[in-house]
Write a structure and sequence with these properties.
With 70 residues, this protein is mainly beta. The protein contains one helix and three strands, in the order βαββ. A three-stranded antiparallel beta sheet has the order 1-2-3, with no helix packed on it. The mean pLDDT is 86.
């Protein structure tokens, strides 16, 4: 997490294109796949405080999403 003043975060999982140059840096073997994880954190005024884009090999990372209604 970034600064304690973050009010909300927006996160997105995506499948990168096969010819994506950043995906090519993962040196995937035949049959391996990757996914992307993009996130942005915002303060109480709606200003972004952190932005990151990560490319992850699907054989090394697993995400679980749990949704809780307020």
């Amino acid at each position: 997490s970034s600064a304690a003043s973050d009010v909300y975060k927006r996160q997105e999982l995506f499948i990168p294109a096969e010819n994506d140059p950043l995906c090519e840096m993962l040196r995937l073997r035949e049959g391996q796949s990757a996914f992307g994880f993009r996130q942005c954190h915002y303060d109480s005024r709606g200003n972004p405080t952190l932005y990151s884009v990560d490319y992850l090999r699907s054989d090394l990372f697993h995400f679980t999403i749990m949704r809780i209604r307020p």
